[in-house]
């Protein structure tokens, strides 16, 4: 009864805490901040894994949050994309105060389930900042010369709202906008027609679904309704992490 | 531990709620959903819960049988069928002052009679999700099967119809859609425990990841 996909895998050790140096900070969309970090003695991550960022106040108080990695393991720097939440204790600091040259405590990579190991076909579906791990998968496939293994579906409200929209569009991702009509698709939330052919083309390929709880629930259900076995779907849900 | 992060002051910490373990924040009325698999749709009448492994009497209960047992516990002043308190997720949110209804695992373990006191249990969900715990962590009024939350049936995304509830440990130990508890004489890593997370997961000790 235990699904084979849940079978044991080698544990993925989280590296210890490291002091990263901020190499780049920018704001790809109004609600997000992109960090590129130089992490000494970095442990190579798998696309889909995340890092923990820890902030320390002068009195020793700390706050830490997890963020998905968007860079490929081959990238010299570690790239994180953070959604800024109103009053977010960590995300507002990262978005508003962090500067190039600052030092940040980071720990990772973490997670051994929601990953792509680079050697099997994968369908990746992300909504909003849930596209971040998809970008890591795509970039890794480019590095490996195996983009043939990867199918990408990315959903957002508008192209201006969706991080990495340009890069994903150029990658040939299927772009789904709920508020923007395109030449091939009216403005609409993700539906069965958006995934049915991709599922039919390779029903048993692993699917990685990432997004808000609502998006992940809808998208994972659509994949199953389209014929993908439940055991082939791996889900990463997130809520507001402030 | 390195020095402070330049320019970071953090939220006002006076007063920090003493119910919050280190590194956690109060999620307020929210209850985030974090699950690694597709949410199953379970018919309670086709669901059952089994305790097996190293027990005197391997036992399977139906939904109706568990509810009858819980009602009996309530009436007879048995193991408390309710938890009121806090829950803590490894992703750093805590939900304070919440409550769940169901049945104490003590009632079920008393019936199945583990053959040892210092063993381990592996909880298994209908999805194949697993999590491991020391047997001692699911005894002494510290673990439940929960089917209601704040008076309403537990929703599917939060593990309904029935989840394990072990609120003194990080919440990935509280397996959603639980269907089996296997008593063992050795520890066997569950799903997240094989994937980089801590074997026990005590929030007050910040046992988040392997090596903590």
Automatic annotation (TrEMBL), chain A:
Gene3D superfamilies in alphabetical order: Nucleotide-binding domain of ferredoxin-NADP reductase (FNR) module, Translation factors
Names of required cofactors: FAD
Molecular function in Gene Ontology: 2 iron, 2 sulfur cluster binding; oxidoreductase activity
Pfam families: FAD_binding_6 (PF00970), NAD_binding_1 (PF00175)
All copies of domain FAD-binding FR-type, residue ranges: 15-116
Keywords: 2Fe-2S, Iron, Iron-sulfur, Metal-binding
Domain of life: Bacteria
InterPro entries, per the entry: Cbr1-like_FAD-bd_dom, FAD-bd_FR_type, Flavoprot_Pyr_Nucl_cyt_Rdtase, FNR_nucleotide-bd, MRET, OxRdtase_FAD/NAD-bd, Riboflavin_synthase-like_b-brl
UniProt-recorded name of the protein: Oxidoreductase
Species of provenance: Nakamurella leprariae
Automatic annotation (TrEMBL), chain B:
Region (Disordered): 1-30
Pfam family, one: Oxidored_molyb
InterPro entries, A to Z: OxRdtase_Mopterin-bd_dom, OxRdtase_Mopterin-bd_sf
Domain called Oxidoreductase molybdopterin-binding: residue spans: 39-192
Protein name: Molybdopterin-dependent oxidoreductase
Biological source species: Nakamurella leprariae
Lineage, opening ranks: Bacteria, Bacillati, Actinomycetota, Actinomycetes, Nakamurellales
């Amino acid at each position: 009864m235990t699904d084979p996909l849940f079978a044991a895998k080698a544990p993925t050790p989280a590296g210890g805490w490291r002091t990263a140096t901020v190499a780049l900070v920018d704001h790809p969309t109004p609600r997000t901040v992109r960090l590129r970090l130089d992490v000494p003695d970095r442990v190579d991550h798998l696309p889909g894994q995340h890092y923990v960022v820890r902030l320390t106040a002068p009195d020793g108080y700390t706050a830490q949050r997890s963020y998905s990695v968007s860079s490929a393991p081959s990238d010299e720097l570690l790239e994180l994309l953070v959604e800024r939440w109103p009053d977010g204790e960590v995300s507002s600091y990262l978005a508003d105060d962090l500067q190039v040259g600052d030092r940040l405590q980071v720990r990772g990579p973490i997670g051994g389930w929601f990953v792509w190991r680079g050697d099997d076909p994968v369908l990746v579906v992300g909504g909003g900042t849930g596209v971040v791990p998809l970008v890591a998968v795509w970039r890794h496939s480019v590095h490996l010369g195996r983009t043939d293994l990867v199918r990408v579906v990315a959903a957002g409200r508008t192209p201006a709202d969706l991080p990495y929209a340009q890069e994903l569009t150029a990658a040939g991702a299927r772009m789904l906008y709920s508020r923007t009509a395109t030449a091939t698709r009216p403005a609409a939330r993700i539906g069965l027609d958006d995934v049915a052919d991709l599922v039919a083309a390779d029903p048993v390929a692993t699917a990685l679904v990432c997004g808000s709880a609502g998006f992940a629930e809808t998208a994972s259900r659509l994949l199953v309704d389209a014929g993908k076995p439940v055991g082939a779907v791996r889900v990463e849900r997130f809520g507001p992490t402030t | 531990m390195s020095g402070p992060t330049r320019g970071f002051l953090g939220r006002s910490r006076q007063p920090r709620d003493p119910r919050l373990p280190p590194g956690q924040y109060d999620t307020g009325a929210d209850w985030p959903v974090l699950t690694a698999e597709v949410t199953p749709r379970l018919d309670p009448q086709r669901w059952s819960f089994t305790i097996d492994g190293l027990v005197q009497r391997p036992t399977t209960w139906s939904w109706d049988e568990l509810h009858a047992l819980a009602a009996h516990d309530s009436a007879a002043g048995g193991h408390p069928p309710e938890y009121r308190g806090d829950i803590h997720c490894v992703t750093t949110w805590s939900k304070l002052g919440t409550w769940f209804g169901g049945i104490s695992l003590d009632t079920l373990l008393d019936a199945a009679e583990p053959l040892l006191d210092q063993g381990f249990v592996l909880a298994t969900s209908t999805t194949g999700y697993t999590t491991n715990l020391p047997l001692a962590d699911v005894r002494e009024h510290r673990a439940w099967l929960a089917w209601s939350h704040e008076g309403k049936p537990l929703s599917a995304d939060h593990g309904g119809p029935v989840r394990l509830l072990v609120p003194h440990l990080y919440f990935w130990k509280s397996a959603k859609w639980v269907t089996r508890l296997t008593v063992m004489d050795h520890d066997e890593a569950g799903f997240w425990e094989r994937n980089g997370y801590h074997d026990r997961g005590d929030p007050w000790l910040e046992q988040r990841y392997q090596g903590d």
